């Protein structure tokens, strides 16, 4: 859904998502939101949730029950409506059309827990009675390779809009929305901290595509020639922004970095291997530097400003658990 500039201003949310008289959103506490689950069955086990969550993310079956089942039910109404609209249009046009995937965008800061949300949702949606084919793609595969970022002196801009091949991103989504078979999504490795050369995930006409990344709700500056340029979210049928107070995301980022020292960074192949052997204080200083000089700047300049574009905002509190939900009014 694309909003006009005045809508975005109207949609500007206070930091703590308080209820306001005039807002394009409905606001719910986690408890209120959980009631929308109705009779949606729990289709995940505690072990599966544990396997789906990222390092340092304590999401459990309680959180899935409280937040994700209602979200799954809401999304099923959106998917069903879009399928009905598709059938009606087919009759209206009296011609056969290829059905295209329902695309869900998931945005939010680095370290806010987007991947956990994306993986849990993908599993829940694929277990609907209709057994839809659900695929998940992350935008990090569309980052320029380190060789290009180094050449352009942009290694400390990783995650900023200019570090992504936005043309490739738009071509990918446009092919998906055109219903093309076997569309290739490039892959990224957090271990090598780089795009994996010649490694792709093939996306073959899923019913639902979840597209996750810090940049998915960003627009591009209008070119000087006045041409209208598409933006990634033009291809979305529904978008979610994962939100939390800055101080919390900061601590999640640093704590995750310190835990990665004990796990992934121990691997000599890891780009950050050198940080596994330095002192704890020195490693913490590195994590603080990466947070403040790159990820926090990016959050302020490019990620948080996109929050008012989301159809749904999940606001997490300490412990990563969702405390408030904002749902855009229709
Ligand atoms: N340096 C790293 N080494 C290994 N895994 C990492 C590293 N940095 C992030 N990850 C993992 O990559 C995934 C994506 O992280 P990130 O882009 O920060 O988004 P989010 O925390 O919102 O999912 C997470 O599962 C995280 O645990
Ligand atoms: C790869 C990322 C930009 C996240 O990208 P995303 O998957 O959201 O597109 C981020 O994990 C990152 O590497 N940030 C740069 C600074 C840092 O090393 O934390």
UniProtKB/TrEMBL annotation:
It holds the Pfam family PRK. GO terms for cellular component: cytoplasm. Gene3D superfamilies: P-loop containing nucleotide triphosphate hydrolases. Its main location: cytoplasm. InterPro entries: P-loop_NTPase, PanK, PRK/URK. Belongs to the prokaryotic pantothenate kinase family. It catalyses: (R)-pantothenate + ATP = (R)-4'-phosphopantothenate + ADP + H(+). Pathway: Cofactor biosynthesis; coenzyme A biosynthesis; CoA from (R)-pantothenate: step 1/5. This is Pantothenate kinase. GO terms for biological process: coenzyme A biosynthetic process. HAMAP family: Pantothen_kinase_1. Its EC number is 2.7.1.33. It is found in: Cytoplasm. One of its GO terms (molecular function) is ATP binding.
């Amino acid at each position: 859904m694309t909003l006009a500039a005045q809508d975005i201003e109207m949609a500007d949310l206070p930091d703590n998502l308080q209820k306001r008289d005039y807002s394009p959103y409905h606001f719910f506490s986690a408890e209120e939101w959980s009631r929308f689950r109705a009779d949606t069955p729990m289709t995940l086990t505690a072990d599966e949730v544990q396997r789906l969550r990222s390092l340092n993310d304590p999401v459990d079956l309680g959180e899935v029950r409280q937040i994700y089942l209602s979200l799954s039910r809401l999304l099923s109404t959106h998917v069903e409506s879009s399928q009905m609209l598709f059938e009606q249009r087919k009759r209206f046009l009296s011609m056969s059309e290829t059905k295209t995937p329902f695309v869900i965008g998931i945005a939010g800061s680095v370290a806010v827990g987007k991947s956990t949300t994306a993986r849990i949702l993908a599993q829940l949606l694929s277990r609907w009675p209709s057994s839809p084919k659900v695929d998940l793609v992350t935008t990090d595969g569309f980052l320029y390779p380190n060789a290009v970022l180094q050449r352009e002196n942009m290694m400390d801009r990783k995650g900023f809009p200019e570090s992504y091949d936005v043309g490739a991103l738009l071509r990918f989504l446009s092919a998906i929305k055109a219903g093309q078979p076997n569309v290739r999504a490039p892959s990224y490795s957090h271990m090598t901290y780089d795009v994996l050369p010649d490694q792709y995930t093939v996306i073959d006409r899923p019913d639902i595509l979840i597209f996750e990344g810090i940049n998915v709700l960003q627009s591009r500056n209008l070119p000087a020639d006045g041409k209208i340029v598409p933006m990634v979210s033009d291809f979305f049928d529904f978008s979610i922004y994962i939100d939390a107070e800055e101080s919390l995301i900061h601590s999640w980022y640093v704590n995750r970095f310190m835990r990665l020292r004990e796990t992934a960074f121990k691997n000599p192949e890891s780009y950050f291997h050198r940080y596994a052997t330095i002192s704890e204080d020195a490693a913490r200083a590195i994590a603080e530097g990466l947070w403040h000089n790159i990820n926090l700047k990016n959050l302020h300049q490019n990620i948080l400003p996109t929050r008012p574009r989301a159809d749904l905002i999940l606001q997490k509190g300490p412990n990563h658990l969702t405390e408030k939900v904002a749902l855009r009014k229709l």
